[in-house]
Specification:
It contains three helices and five strands, in the order βααββαββ. It is globular. Helix 1 (18-32) packs antiparallel against helix 2 and helix 2 packs antiparallel against helix 3 (111-117). Helix content is 32%, strand content 26%.
Length: 136
């Protein structure tokens, strides 16, 4: 098992933070994942964070979102944790699926896109925090 060290990003609950997320994943790419897979990972992380922010959009206080990436053998594990109200994206039934990366657009497919490109997705609520784990 190979741990990537301090591969953690903390975001404010604002959609403008998606640009910081994109920069962060691009910086980590050479040590973590191939260029071909990077687009799918980045797109899934952006979708997850955007869905979390939009789900909690009516809150007065801005939620905190933390993302960690860890390499475990051939698997890349992304953990997304937030302080928002309970939100289990794994329970939403897919409405449509992207047929290819070229057909996928951020915001169009939401959690359904993550189901297309991950090998596993797990949600849990612990100590007042949502935890979503994505495996690639």
């Amino acid at each position: 098992m190979s741990n990537l060290g301090a591969n953690r990003l903390e975001l404010r609950g604002e959609l403008s933070e998606l640009s910081r997320l994109a920069e962060w994943t691009n910086t980590l790419a050479p040590q973590v994942i191939s260029a071909d897979a990077l687009f799918a990972v980045q797109l899934c992380l952006e979708e997850a964070v955007a869905n979390i922010i939009m789900h909690d959009g009516t809150r007065e206080d801005r939620l905190a979102i933390a993302i960690e990436l860890e390499r475990k053998g051939a698997t890349l594990v992304a953990r997304i944790e937030d302080t928002g109200c309970e939100f289990d994206p794994t329970q939403f039934a897919p409405l449509s699926m992207a047929k290819s990366l070229e057909d996928a657009k951020v915001g169009d497919y939401g959690i359904h896109l993550m189901r297309c490109f991950t090998t596993g997705m797990h949600y849990e609520r612990q100590e007042g925090r949502n935890r979503l784990t994505l495996r690639f």
